[in-house]
Specification:
- The protein is α/β, with parallel strands linked by helices.
- It has helices at about 40-50, 70-75, 95-105, 110-120, 140-150, 170-185, 195-200, 220-225, 225-235; strands spanning about 5-15, 15-25, 30-35, 55-60, 65, 80, 155-160, 185-190, 205-210, 210-215.
- The chain has a domain at about 5-90 and about 155-235: P-loop containing nucleotide triphosphate hydrolases (Rossmann fold).
- It is built from nine helices and ten strands.
């Protein structure tokens, strides 16, 4: 059974069809990349899967259960975690930021602190536990965003441009962490504009253009796909 099935998902904003009959599956333990030019509908798709937006039609199924009637909070409790493009940590220490979602499940402070520190250690953030996020680099704040998402105990973690704005050294430091998250038994779906980085970490890639899914395959298959190439060049192809 796939961990996630997206079936015929569609969403309109007025006359704009932002998501157009999108269907795909993600298997347990995969790292799947989601690419597409600006305005392709990638973040809108994330918002539909996580429940922030309601689709006009279609369904999202997590481990065999339809999420159609579930709120974002309920979806999170079922194992659907995500980050956001804009990093907005709470005005508290790094450790306390990670403790917040843990305390939503377990009000025991000592257990929450221990669990949060374990997550910080996984993401190599333990030395910043007492720091305030505002005093840290963008790369570290993005990693804190991942830590907060991991604190919700996701089965599927959706990462929205966690590498954007980072320099090459910071990117190379963060790519192994994504693999380590998967090695903890967490499936990963990641949006990223940095093509080289995404292809390096993903085992399978989905490509979108104008709200539609135009390719689904290995990194090599997708990067050589004519429809994907034309989408990134801004060219229309009736065959795509």
């Amino acid at each position: 059974m796939p961990i996630l099935s997206v079936r015929n998902l569609s969403k309109r904003f007025g006359g704009l069809k932002a998501i157009n009959d999108v269907s795909f599956e993600i298997l347990h333990g995969e790292i799947v990349g989601l690419i597409g030019p600006n305005g392709a509908g990638k973040t809108t798709l994330f918002n539909l899967i996580s429940g922030i937006l309601t689709p006009d039609s279609g369904d999202v199924i997590l481990e065999g259960t339809s999420l159609k009637s579930f709120s974002p909070v309920k979806r999170s409790l079922m194992g659907l975690g995500r980050t956001f493009q804009i990093v907005r940590p709470f005005s508290m220490s790094v450790l306390e930021n990670v403790m917040v979602p843990i305390l939503a499940r377990d009000p025991n402070i000592a257990r929450a602190r221990a669990a949060a520190f374990e997550i910080l250690s996984l993401l190599r953030l333990e030395q910043y536990a007492d720091a305030h996020p505002d005093n840290l680099t963008l790369a570290l704040r993005k990693r804190i965003e991942v830590a907060r998402a991991l604190a919700t105990r996701p089965k599927l973690l959706m990462l929205d441009e966690v590498l954007a704005g980072l320099n090459p050294t910071e990117i190379s430091e963060n790519l192994p962490i994504i693999r380590q998250v998967r090695d903890q038994g967490i499936t990963v779906l990641i949006i990223e504009h940095l093509m080289d980085a995404l292809m390096a970490v993903s085992e399978r890639v989905l490509a979108m253009d104008q709200g539609a899914l135009i390719a689904n395959g290995t990194p090599a298959e997708v990067t050589s796909n004519e429809c994907v190439i034309k989408a990134y060049l801004g060219e229309e192809d009736p065959a795509c």
